[in-house]
């Protein structure tokens, strides 16, 4: 089985970290191909950054050729719906995957993400997925995404402190880490806090394997139908669906 894992930002060290976490979670027979677009923001922190990553996601999907499943490795599930329109294989978002798996092991969970500006998009997704009632709170740890790539930063300490508050104040029975860049922290933080801590990358890889193994494909009825053929103007001409 071959799974394409797309980090939508352009920070290759984070792509490498995500790739390692994905391969560690995958079955031995699964090949993980981790990529990121060459154009776009180095980190996705809020709605404006999100707007500039979707063409890059679609371009990486086209460049990869045939795969058994895709993972969108940005916790906001940025571009997930557009990617599903472009694909027949399953497309799994790390946020959606982590939310669903958290509901299987806990009555209620809290999310610990990076900055406050990222919280509304995550809250919106929880409502969109019908899981808002299972999430006690979406918390920001006041960590910039790229601080997670800096060994000398106090990112891990700040994430851990926010997890402690979530367990103490929210009654969170499990924690979902709200950034792909936290993928390497889940196991240690779970041991430290004595609650399940879920990393969306690992969750998405296992759900991608499961859906592909069941032969489930993205439905082409309704919203995820292939885009209609049309010619896109200007810089977006290469993305023209159906040859344009
Ligand atoms: C992510 N940003 O998973 C999100 C998390 C966030 O560059 N990768 C990013 O802070 O919204």
Q: Report the CATH C-level class of the largest domain.
A: Alpha Beta
Helix content: 25-40%
* Strand arrangement across the biggest beta sheet: 2-1-3-4
User: How many separate structural domains?
Assistant: 2
The mean pLDDT is 97
List the total number of helices. 9
Strand content: 5-15%
Q: Which H/E pattern describes the elements?
A: EHEHHEHEHEHEHEHEH
Instruction: Give me the count of strands.
Output: 8
What class, by secondary structure content?
alpha/beta
Any guess at the CATH architecture of the largest domain?
A: 3-Layer(aba) Sandwich
The CATH topology label of the largest domain is Rossmann fold
Distinct compounds present:
[(4R)-2,5-dioxoimidazolidin-4-yl]acetic acid
User: Major beta sheet, specifics?
Assistant: 4 strands, parallel
Provide the fold topology.
Elements (H helix, E strand, L loop, with lengths): L1 E5 L5 H14 L5 E5 L11 H5 L2 H11 L4 E4 L7 H7 L4 E3 H12 L3 E5 L5 H10 L6 E6 L14 H16 L3 E5 L7 H8 L3 E3 H14 L31
Parallel strand pairs: 1-2, 1-3, 3-4, 5-6, 5-7, 7-8
Helix pairs in contact: 1-9, 5-9
The structure holds [(4R)-2,5-dioxoimidazolidin-4-yl]acetic acid.
């Amino acid at each position: 089985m071959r799974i394409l894992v797309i980090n939508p930002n352009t920070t290759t060290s984070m792509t490498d970290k995500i790739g390692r976490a994905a391969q560690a979670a995958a079955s031995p027979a699964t090949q993980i191909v981790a990529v990121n677009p060459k154009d776009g923001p180095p980190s996705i922190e809020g709605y404006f950054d999100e707007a500039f990553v979707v063409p890059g996601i679609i371009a990486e999907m086209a460049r990869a050729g045939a795969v058994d499943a895709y993972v969108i490795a940005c916790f906001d599930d940025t571009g997930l719906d557009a990617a599903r329109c472009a694909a027949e294989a399953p497309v799994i978002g790390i946020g959606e995957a982590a939310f669903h798996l958290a509901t299987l092991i806990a009555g209620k969970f809290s999310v610990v993400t990076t900055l406050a500006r990222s919280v509304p998009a995550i809250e919106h997704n929880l409502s969109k997925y019908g899981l808002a009632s299972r999430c006690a709170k979406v918390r920001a740890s006041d960590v910039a995404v790229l601080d997670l790539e800096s060994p000398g930063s106090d990112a891990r300490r700040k994430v851990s402190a926010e997890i402690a508050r979530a367990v103490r104040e929210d009654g969170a029975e499990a924690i979902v880490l709200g950034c792909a860049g936290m993928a390497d922290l889940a196991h240690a933080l779970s041991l430290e806090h004595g609650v399940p801590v879920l990393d969306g990358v690992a969750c998405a890889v296992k759900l991608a394997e499961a859906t592909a193994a069941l032969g489930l494909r993205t439905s082409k009825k309704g919203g995820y139908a292939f885009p209609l053929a049309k010619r896109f103007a200007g810089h977006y001409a290469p993305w023209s669906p159906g040859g344009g």
